[in-house]
Specification:
Blueprint lengths: L1 E5 L2 E4 L4 E8 L7 E7 L6 E7 L5 E3 L7 E6 L4 E6 L8 E8 L17 E2 L3 E6 L1
Parallel strand pairs: 2-11
Antiparallel strand pairs: 1-3, 3-8, 4-5, 4-9, 5-6, 7-8, 9-10, 9-11
Length: 127
Amino acid sequence: VQLAESGGGLVQSGGSLRLSCAASGRAFSYGAMAWFRQAPGKEREFVAANFWSAPTENYVDFVNGRFTSTRDSAKNTVTLQMSSLKPEDTAVYYCAATDVYYSNHYAYRSVGTYTYWGQGTQVTVSS
């Protein structure tokens, strides 16, 4: 399985960016695809997840309605639409995927849950 992210870049505070992640090599029926981010000197943190077996999403609190993650099961892709970006959103954003089902969706917020990772895409928000 390979995950390929695209769409990062430089944007001013208050602006918007859209990240995409395409999975190739297999189709997912269970589990999730997720977005994580890692700022310099900080641990990788969960941002959002889309579940393959249900049309629901899971977001971390700091997103606060600013980000929307959508999935296209037919294309094996997820898209993260980010708006009202802040300088503190600056980080490398990673796409991740797992085909393991957990009844507790909070398990999908953990880095260790995911088997497959993309190479990351830089998002820089200037003040």
